[in-house]
Each structure stands twice: as structure tokens, then as C-alpha cells.
Amino acid sequence: MQQVRTVSLDDLKIHPIVAGIINNTSYPSIQFSMKHDGQKTPIVVVKRDVGYLIIDGVLRYSAAVELGNIETLECKILDIADGQVLDTRIVYNQKSKVHTLEICRNIEHILGLIGNEQGKRNDLLDNKNFDKEDEFGTTRRNRYEKACAYSGLPFSTRTLYKLMRVHDFEKTDNSLGLIDGINSGKFKIDGAHKLMKSYIDKSSQSESEDNSLPSILENKINDVSYRLFNESSMSMEKIDDQSVSLFIDSHPYFKLRRYRNQIGLRHGEEKTLGEYVSNFVLFCKEKWKKLKPGGVLVTILGETYKGGYNGVCTSVETALKNEGWGIIDVVIWVKQNQQYAPHPLRFVNSYERIIVLRKPGADTFFKEVKRESSVGEFKIMPTSGGGYYVATPETCIPNVIITNVHNPVEFSEVDKDFRHQAPAPEQIYTIFIDAYSKPGDTICDGFAGSGTIGVGLSMGRNVIAYEIDKESYKFCKDRFEYYMSKNNIELPMAA
User: Fold this and answer.
1) Which residues are within 8 A (CB) of 217 and not within 5 positions of it... i.e. 6 or more apart?
2) CA pair distance 381, 383, nearest whole angstrom
3) If we measure between CA atoms, which residue out of 364, 355, 368 comes closest to residue 431?
4) Helix (H, G, I), strand (E, B), or coil: what is residue 151?
5) What is the C-alpha to C-alpha distance for residues 306 and 66, in angstroms, rounded to an integer?
6) DSSP-assigned letters across all residues of 371-405
7) Which of 22, 40, 217, 370 could make a disulfide contact with 99, Cβ separation 3.0–4.6 Å?
8) pLDDT of residue 21 exceeding 90
9) Running DSSP on this structure, what letter comes out for residue 178?
10) CATH 3.40.50.150 applies to domain 216-484
11) pLDDT over 50 at 298, yes or no
12) Strands of 138-205, DSSP E
């Protein structure tokens, strides 16, 4: 009988029988992997009166202790007697599988120890022909031969090289899920490498085809215009100060995913929550400069549970409030078609926060979003406390919005093959655009992504958008042109 449970580090100890036979050496690669990627494999323990005693996974436990900032570990709890501990440990050592990402981290460490005195290692994206025999080269082959020998891995030199190329690629773009696919058996290393090369070649071809696409795109029809920038919104010097009525966007979430083709600051991949919040504030300082007094910032923000609850939303709210922003509201977005990932200790997370903030200095425009009530007419209604209230034919929408995570139909009319890792639904944007801006106002998205902000063009707003990924930038352009061609749309009702 076994079960998986999250156990406090303070309640874990190495089983005395195991402690007597292991060499508890520190492995920097495991420590590095635990720090940056979290725990990939549960440790194996038994429950005793003194706590949970570790049978297998001592190195992961030791790495967590040395890091000092890990409070819990995932544990597989076995119900066995002490006399079975050694045999069980042998069995788990024989059948246990180290996660492929941990293997890559270990090889990185070994390659670092070997060094590269004879030649400079080229970054993957700067060396498109790395798989040619002459590009592999004697020096590089020797390094990987040594890495194979030191690691004890049953790989050929070239297979190990291909694995590390895939690993390097996924540091900038993990949308294909290659390392996880290798780990699960979905891909062979050679197959993952070929898929990566095909993807890079396709991206390179697309980039080559788009070289003529300028870094700033503009269009204006019937007094409605857009400006689209292929650059970071950390600096928006090309647009006028105090010219924007509404910002609505969603920053990359902390430690949740790696977005493709990011350049410069990889926002969302910061090592600590403090660094993430600091960068978040820097982006918002630039938005403050561009907002009119009384202007509104709507930011969609999700919590991060990697390594436990992080308090991302609370930290961001506090930091922005300290910067002078006024918090108007915190709206709950319920995602009714969320892909559930069960957790042994907590309920499934199916919502995100939408923080609504204002820049002081003038009155803030707000158009109440209403829906019809069942009253049908004005009525004076008694309360239980002996008072009265007026029931009207319309009632305000509550600050809870229920939508699908994304409606693929929204892409199909522009490019049915386009993919984005976190597209925002139109309904979210239309509700806030309608509530906090007027036709003719300028609205802006600092992280345009799939270009949902373009729906504002259909609503008579001028749109400014920033997107650093070339592929998404091109799609935003096409989507904006699609919205420019549409008349005013019928606004959906919030739930």
C-alpha cells in the first residue's frame, strides 16, 4: 500500500538503516534542478512515530535542506516493516527513473567542470547548422565523450549532444514539450531533436519571410486607428505621455510558463517573487506615464502554486498600492473550461484575479455594465430589518465573470493554425473596454500576445499594442485588420 503526500521538511529524516549505507554527497546539479525546476520525482518514505523516514531520495532531500527555501517535499509513503527497507530501496533504485530534466542539469554541471578551453560554445539560436558533422567538431565531441564517461549514461556521444541541444532550446521555448515528452516516452531523443530542428527551420523561414514587416505597424479607418509595436513595453517612448485612457493586459505569470522567442528581460522567469514584483512595478511605472489622470489599468493576474502558494497577487497589489495606484476593484474570473491538474492537498484552481487600478488626478470614467433583473418594473420592497429598498428593472453585474479560458472560434476567422500559450478571451476585454473607456478613447495592451485588445477597434476605440514575439506580432497585425473591417459588435453579458 502506498500514497503520495506533501510532507514538511521538518518532519523528514533519513532512515537509520539507509543512513548507514549511503554516501551523503552533495550534488550541485540536483540542487540546481531543485532550485529552478522544483521537485520532479517524489522521495520514498515510511511513516514512524518520529516522523517520515527516507528510504530513497536522500540526495533530493539533502538538496532541499541546503537550499534553505523549500518547506515541503512530495513523498511516496510506503507501509512496510524496517526489515523490508533495504530490499525496497534496492527495488526502487533499480526501477526508479531520474527525470530527463534532472539528467540535463547534471550534464550541464559536468560540462561546466570539463570546461571549453579550445573553443567557444555557440548558442543554439545563433548556430542553425549545429547538427552537421563538421559543426559537431572534434573539440565538442571530446567534451561530450568525457561527459558521457563521467555521467555513466548509456548514451552515445552524439545522442547526448542532441539531448542537450533540445534542453538548450527549451530554455527559450518549451511550447513543444520535448523534454517532458522524452521523459514520458512520447519522444525518442532523436525524434525530439528532429522535431526541434523542423520547428526552428520553420520559424527561421517565417522570420525570413517577415523581414519586410516593419517593427511598427499602423492603420486608420473612419477615425479608428491602431499602432502595433514589435518591442517590449518596458519603454513606451514612442507614444505620448498622458494619452491613454485604459490599459488592459496580462503580464507573464510568475514561474508558470516559458514564452517563445522572448528577448531581453524574460519577465515571468525571474528567480524570486521579489524580482518578479519589482519588474512588474517597472512596467506599471511606464504605464503610469502614458495614462491620463483618472485613467484605469486592468491587469489579469494568476496565482503561482509551483513550490507551494506564493502570494503573487497579494504581493503585486501591495506593491502597486505603495506606488500610488488606487485599487478600484478585484474581479474574479472563473474559467469554466479550465484544464484541471489535481493536487493531493488543495482544491483545483479554476479562477484568476483581475485587478482594476486607477491613476489619481481626475475623475475616472465608469459605465455601469447592467443586465435585466426579474423585477420587470420599479418596486419598493421591504427589508427584514423593517426598512425599504428600491428594486429596479436593471441590476449591476457582480464582480465575478464566468467565461471559457479561450474560444478557438476567435482565432479561426483570422488564422485557424495560430497557437498561443495563454490567449485571453474577447469577453473579458469587451466588458472592461466598455466599462472604463468611451468610443474615440485610446486603449493599450503592453503584452498583446494573441491580440485580443484588437476587439476594441470594433468598439470604436483606438488601440496601441506591444508584442515582442515576431510570430504573435504578425498574428496581432492580421487580427487587428480583421477587427478594423468589422462594424460595432454586440457586447456579451457577464455572468
Assistant:
1) 226, 227, 228, 477, 480
2) 7
3) 368
4) helix
5) 19
6) EE-S--S-EEEE-TTS-EEEE-SEEEPPSEEEE-S
7) 40
8) no
9) H
10) yes
11) yes
12) none
Q: Look at strands 370-372 and 326-335 and give their pairing.
A: unpaired
- What is the rounded distance in angstroms from the CA atom of residue 251 to the CA atom of residue 228? 17
Q: What is the mean pLDDT of residues 293-319?
A: 87
Average pLDDT over residues 90-103: 72
The residue ranking higher by pLDDT, 370 or 273, is: 273
Q: How much of the chain exceeds pLDDT 70, in percent? A: 73
- Per-residue pLDDT of 115-145, as tens digits, reads 644 333 333 333 333 344 334 444 556 778 8
Counting every residue, how long is the chain?
495
pTM for the model stands at 0.55
Q: Strand 442-445 to strand 400-403: parallel, antiparallel, or no bridges (unpaired)? A: unpaired
Q: How far does CA 394 lie from the centroid of its chain?
A: 39
278-294 mean pLDDT: 94
What's the topology of domain 2-96? 3.90.1530
What does the domain layout of the chain look like in residue ranges? 2-96, 102-209, 216-484
The mean per-residue pLDDT over the stretch 269-289 comes to 89
